Amino acid sequence: MMTLFYLLGYLAVLGFICLAALKIRTYLKASPLHIRWELYPIPHEGPKKEAYGGSYMEEKDWWTKKRHVDHWGDIKGILVEVLCLHATYEHNPKLWIRTYPFHVGMYMLMGGTIILVCAVLLQLFGVDPQGALMTFVANVINAVVLLGAFCIAGGGIALILRRREDAGLKKYTTVEQYINLGSFVLFGLLTLCAWAFNPSYYQLARDFIYNLFTFNFQPLGSAWFVLNMLVGFFLMIAIPVTNMGHLIMKYFLYHDIRWGDEATVYSDKNKKIIDEMLQYQVTWAAPHIAGDGSPKTWVDVATSNPAAPKNDE
Fold first, then answer.
1. 96: Cβ–Cβ under 8 A, 6 or more apart, which residues?
2. How far apart are CA 187 and CA 189, in angstroms?
3. pLDDT tens digits, residue range 159-185?
4. Domain residues for 226?
5. Which of 69, 109, 113, 285 could form a disulfide with 148 if both were Cys (CB 3.0 to 4.6 A apart)?
6. β-strand partners of 282
7. Three-state secondary-structure class, residue 282
8. What is the rounded CA–CA span in Å between residue 97 and residue 89?
9. What pTM value is reported for the model?
10. Does residue 148 share a domain with residue 127?
11. Can you list the alpha helix ranges (DSSP code H) found in the chain?
12. Is residue 270 assigned to a domain?
């Protein structure tokens, strides 16, 4: 049974990576050229224009000038949004109070996992697992796991109640979203149980990751931890294929859509996409595009005047 447990762990990690890569690839390959939101300020305009919501397009003859993009502004903007959920706080503070602890809990457990992997790598390279450094890491991980699990469980319950009580949210909340949030609540509660009923959560988690790295399928001695990890495996597979996938897609949705203000004159890629789209066939029989039901391309539509008088034959 323990061998199956570890195999499920490998499959969960591999499945998450593959499904996340597939989701990103599908988005990049299949998404059409989007219409700009025209929402300002945009962080990569730089602090001067960002201060009043300006754009490079307000400059005279902007299309003849080399464009400057402030990449640090983009980085700072996405970090503020991811770490603080700034837009939710600004536009829906009642929801922010509930969703922010939930997100912070996930960040803490994800960060703790990264620290654990680094600790295991150090151990594999000869660092004493009982030394002062690892003891400090153990204390940090145990504290982070406790606080993170409380945040996930409490925030998840608060979000479920909010969706049930708020008339606007309730109307658009699906069963899938309740299942997603409920799964995270269960994961948080099992994490708390594994933390409470074992001498050291850090020791269990480190041994588990160490065994994964060394292909040593040894029992971990805690049923609570095994249950905790099994739910975690399920969540790893579920995240890329549910609405929780925004965790993966937020970078693209912000940089490519919300902040995507690159003019066609600067983008050979967009020029190529537009050229291809102009060759699509239009068969609508609508007066506003001078349609008569015969096949036309968008080039034909764009270069014709629907109000022009028709020649009598």
1. 85, 88, 89
2. 6
3. 999 999 888 888 888 899 999 999 999
4. 2-33+85-258
5. 109
6. 296
7. strand
8. 8
9. 0.83
10. yes
11. 2-30, 47-52, 71-84, 86-91, 93-124, 132-165, 167-172, 175-196, 201-214, 223-238, 246-252, 268-278, 298-302
12. yes
Confirm whether 63 is domain-assigned: no
38 found inside a domain: no
Residue range 120-155, pLDDT digits in tens: 999 999 889 888 999 999 999 999 999 999 999 999
Q: Which of 260, 91, 105 is nearest to 184 (CA)?
A: 105
137 vs 130, 133, 143, CA distance in Å?
A: 10, 6, 10
Q: Provide the pLDDT for residue 8.
A: 95
**149 token code pair:** 């699990």
Nearest-angstrom CA–CA distance, 13 and 282: 46
HEC readout, 73-103:
HHHHHHHHHHHHCHHHHHHCHHHHHHHHHHH
Q: Two tokens at 290?
A: 């001078």
Please identify which residue in the block is written with the tokens 């959560």.
201
